[in-house]
Design goal:
Blueprint (H helix, E strand, L loop, with lengths): L4 H5 L2 E5 L5 H20 L4 H18 L1 E7 L2 E10 L4 E8 L5 H19 L3 E6 L5 H6 L3 E5 L3 E6 L10 H7 L7
Antiparallel strand pairs: 1-2, 2-3, 3-4, 5-7, 6-7
Helix pairs in contact: 2-3
GO molecular function, one term: acyltransferase activity, transferring groups other than amino-acyl groups
Protein name: N-acetyltransferase domain-containing protein
InterPro entries: Acyl_CoA_acyltransferase, GNAT_dom
Length: 180
Amino acid sequence: MILSDDLICEGYTIEPVGEGDSDQYMKIRKDFLKPFVDQYYGGWVEEIQMIIANDLFHRTRKDASFLKILKSGETIGFLAYKEQPDQITDISVIMSESGQEIELLGEFLHFITRLSDRTKKPVLLTVYQSAPFADLYLEHGFTIYGTSRTHYLMSYNIEDTSGMGDYKNRIYAAGIGKDS
């Protein structure tokens, strides 16, 4: 991913995430997600969320493209995506309040949709329904193909999403939960 000249001139850079970024990831993740966890899941339980965040940090470093956003050398956010043989998934954006969240997210979504167009791979992601930037995904060509209690289930570059909103059918179609 390459930032626009305007963002670069403002001091923004993007670098791969390293092992030493774990503490900053945990802090920014908490600041970003706590309002959603409080709203939808009854409150942030620090011990549980730290276990989830630690596991997610290490899995994402191992299995996905994981980038940190810096402004004037200070980490202000993280971006991740996983390009699989048949799709692009595990899209994640967490940012501290920098005043540029929408512009940065817009550039990331532009990058992801261009990657999808170039590779002909669909993009699947989830967005909290109450996220103030949920409309930005729609502006970049994503469509809502289903909802959960908490999230919009969104896709890009998929012509037929019928049946995709029914996660139970997808789980059972994959053989999970079936008797062998």
